[in-house]
Amino acid sequence: MCESSVLIEKEGGRELLMEDVVHVEIDGETITFRGILGETKHAKGRLKEINLMKHMIILEECK
Predict the structure, then answer these.
(1) Cα separation, 27 vs 33, whole angstroms
(2) For the residues 8-29, what does the mean pLDDT come to?
(3) Angstrom distance (rounded) from CA 61 to CA 13
(4) What is the pTM of this model?
(5) Which long-range contacts (CB under 8 A, 24 or more apart) does 7-14 make?
(6) Per-residue pLDDT, 43
(7) Domain residue spans in the chain?
């Protein structure tokens, strides 16, 4: 499968934001994630890393 987990970096650590993400849409600093079952989650931040081999998307928190 091609789903990824989204993690957000916050003050020295990473926190799981969402699992089973299949679609990412970026509008400035607002990023929308859509899951395999159609659920959505919005986050403010910047993309730091996308690792397709590990199925991970890492965001950097905006302050």
Answers:
(1) 12
(2) 94
(3) 11
(4) 0.89
(5) 7/56, 7/57, 7/58, 7/59, 8/43, 8/45, 8/58, 8/59, 8/60, 8/61, 9/48, 9/58, 9/59, 9/60, 9/61, 10/61, 14/58
(6) 95
(7) 4-58
